[in-house]
Write a structure and sequence with these properties.
Length: 676
């Protein structure tokens, strides 16, 4: 591979890093893979460009437009993935490891694109929850909304996943409408730069939406304000230093951290040797030790087993680890590649020596490993190292020291309570896993350990085949953990987007709040004039467009007919005496589904038109019984709209059914698909 010269991307220009060039070594050969200048960039210009150009451009787009952009970026990564796979082995990673990084990264963007399209509005304001009635007459209401922060997100990324680590942060940031300045870890910056280049070359990103810093961050932190977010992944010591930066503190800049994590995996007390869960546990511990040569923030560092199974577990792990071939990750037969650098290997060795003061190395040798592949003989390879600590309650280092390599410590526990307490001694982790086939054990463990772990993966014979495993953070689930893990939270679907937005409590009249949020609130004006709302195409239908129907009486015959027709002859509809004995009913009452059906009969405009399909109901409540002789009428109001594609969009209707006394008997939201 020729030596790459890396560039930063500042105010939409690729720029050299200036003097004081450093060499970045290949993890496999130890030879120079890339060079990067480390001279100061014009950080003032970067920040200005993000704030004044990138931010306004992104904020002018709707969530759906930003989602479409993310989809295009994800596609571009997939289309050009082989260029990234070509660089991947130099980081020490096998193709399988690279799949997590490269295609996992694209998959995360795809997921954000789809979440943005399906769960967020085609709008620039995001409503949070339901309106709150804060006045007696309902003329003064409360509503929470999210709008994008007006600063930038500074992404400081770790070396281990140069592509995924960048994209999992860019997805939610860009979807929120916030520009990003990305600072990849120097050790693998050549792969991050190559992926970043692909994003830029799509031409899909507005100017200023993303910028790239290769090398140090200079005075960037001194420029932070309360409108900015720092999203950090790396070591606890760097996180501590950066979150204590005077500017972060003075400006209350948001700081999200993923840092060290002594993740635990627990073999359930029910999972005796020979059970599927025992085998799955062994497989998972070995996989987590060796994928990415253990350089995964979610890797299993502590493996707990019932004390009576300690020997069998150790034997099974050692046998399985013995089959791992270490070597040139470009070779297919290599199951495990290299650590990212010789410095990282020294760090891992130091950490293992610290662990070995209170645990025995029962598999692997710190100094020796058989390496396959000729060009790899001088690379940063290390053997998988399994330690066993017989007294995890007296030991300290095993719960504190993160050896960021293929290293795990096996430990015994007495009972489930003990296992949870030991898992919690990591003082906060990104993930813990439990291998059990017993839901009672799972529940007890979750109650005892949940507070200490950002994610709990419970794996058994039923889920194993489809399980995404202990170590995979997923875009739809939160990634982050309390305490030692950094106290941050990333991804989690739409939750992750909100980290880059401000939640504001709005107060005002229903008409004002409807206008601000583009979502009709009861009490706001309606337009009940013809035509019927079902005659209007998606584009012509305005929020607040309403039909108020004439009343319809519900007779005992109607109720009996409905009961026999549908087969729903529940006593509350059929048996006067039994119904009277029920505290909710004055006597026989109409079926809830009858009310819904009659409501539809009242508001529907039957002729073919723009309404294509009934898509479902949300938030249905039956609030008062309807007795024979009562009459009902309906108000149906267009509440909000979400375009799906060029052909149709989803309309959400606010529906209220009232009786002859004006009491509300049912409320719900009806969803229809309407032609554009
Ligand atoms: P670091 O904390 O040193 O680096 C993480 C990121 O922070 C890199 O982009 C680094 O840039 C940047 N950085 C470092 N110092 C500063 C600073 N003063 N100002 C601004 N940015 C800074 O972690 P490493 O990646 O070197 O990994 C070291 C250890 O961290 C690992 O051995 C492991 O224990 C842990 N780690 C934990 C992870 C987790 O999520 N649990 C993930 C990755 C690592 P640069 O590369 O240019 O120095």
């Amino acid at each position: 591979m020729s030596v790459l010269t890396l560039k930063s991307y500042v105010a939409d220009e690729w720029v050299d890093g200036g003097p004081n060039e450093i060499a970045i070594a290949s993890a496999v050969t130890g030879e120079t893979a890339a060079r990067a200048g480390t001279g100061a960039l014009d950080f003032a210009a970067m920040v200005r460009h993000a704030r004044e150009v990138g931010g306004p451009a992104l904020r002018a787009m709707t969530f759906h437009e930003r989602a479409a952009m993310l989809k295009g970026l994800a596609k571009a990564i997939m289309d050009r993935k082989e260029a990234l796979y070509a660089l991947n082995p130099e980081t020490g990673a096998t193709r399988k490891d690279g799949w997590i990084d490269i295609e996992g990264g694209a998959g995360t963007l795809f997921s954000y694109a789809s979440k943005g399209k399906r769960e967020l509005p085609d709008d620039r304001v995001l409503i949070d929850g339901e309106p709150e009635r804060i006045s007696r007459e309902g003329t003064f209401m409360g509503l929470h909304v999210f709008t994008p922060l007006q600063g930038f997100a500074l992404h400081v990324n770790a070396f281990n996943f140069p592509v995924w680590g960048m994209l999992e942060k860019l997805g939610p940031t860009l979807l929120a409408g916030v520009p990003a300045i990305v600072k990849p870890a120097t050790a693998t910056a050549y792969l991050a730069e190559a992926a970043f280049r692909i994003l830029i070359e799509t031409g899909l990103l507005p100017k200023g939406a993303v910028q790239l810093v290769i090398g140090p961050t200079g005075d960037l932190f001194d420029r932070l304000t309360g409108q900015d977010v720092v999203s950090f992944t790396g070591s606890a010591s760097t996180a501590q230093k950066l979150r204590a930066h005077p500017r972060v503190i003075a400006e209350s800049a948001r700081f999200i951290a993923e840092q060290d994590s002594l993740n635990a995996s627990v073999l359930g007390p029910d999972a005796e040797p020979g059970s599927p869960e025992f085998d799955l546990f062994i497989k998972e511990v070995v996989r987590e030790m060796t994928v990415k040569a253990g350089q995964k923030c979610t890797a299993i560092r502590r493996a707990f087993v019932p004390e009576k199974y300690l020997k069998e577990a150790e034997k099974a792990l050692a046998e399985s680890l013995a089959r791992i071939k270490v070597g040139d990750p470009a070779l297919e037969e290599a199951r495990m590649g290299a650590l990212v650098s010789h410095a990282q290997r020294e760090d891992v060795r130091d950490k293992v020596r610290a662990l070995a003061r209170e645990a025995d190395i029962v598999f692997g040798d710190l100094e020796k490993v058989e390496i396959i592949g000729e060009r790899a003989q001088k690379g940063a390879f290390i053997s998988p190292i399994l330690l066993r600590c017989d007294d995890p309650w007296t030991a300290k280092a095993v719960h504190v020291v993160e050896a960021f390599g293929p290293v795990s410590t096996l430990m015994p526990y007495r009972d489930l309570e003990d296992a949870a307490a030991l898992a919690n001694r990591g003082e906060g982790s990104l993930v813990a896993s439990l291998f059990t086939h017993d839901p009672k054990i799972a529940r007890e463990f979750v109650l005892a350990a949940g507070a200490y772990h950002g994610r709990l993966a419970i794996i058994d014979r039923d889920s194993a085949k489809e399980s995404t495993g202990h170590g995979s953070p997923l875009p739809v689930l939160v990634h982050g953990g309390p305490g030692r893990a950094g106290g941050g939270e990333e991804m989690g679907g739409a939750r992750g987007v909100k980290h880059y937005m401000q939640r504001t409590a709005l107060q005002g009249s229903p008409a004002i709040l409807t206008g601000v949020a583009n979502s009709w609130i009861k009490g706001a004006p309606v337009d009940a004039a013809p035509p019927h709302p079902f005659r209007l195409k998606f584009g012509a239908l305005e929020i607040g467009k309403t039909i108020e129907t004439k009343p319809r009486e519900i007779t005992l015959d109607d109720i009996e007919h409905f009961a026999h027709f549908t087969g729903d002859t529940f006593y509350a509809h059929m048996d006067e005496e039994a119904a009277r004995a029920n505290p909710f009913f004055p006597g026989r009452v109409a079926h809830g589904y009858l009310i819904l059906s009659f409501a539809a009969g009242l508001f529907v405009d039957p002729a073919p038109g723009p309404v294509l399909a009934n898509y479902g109901l949300d938030n249905l409540r039956f609030l008062a019984p309807v007795s024979p002789g009562d009459s009902i009428k309906v108000r149906l109001t267009a509440k909000s709209k979400k375009k799906r594609n060029d052909d149709y969009g989803e309309v959400r209707w606010d529906v209220e059914v009232a009786n002859q006394k004006g009491e509300t008997v049912a409320t719900y939201e009806l969803l229809t698909m309407n032609a554009v």
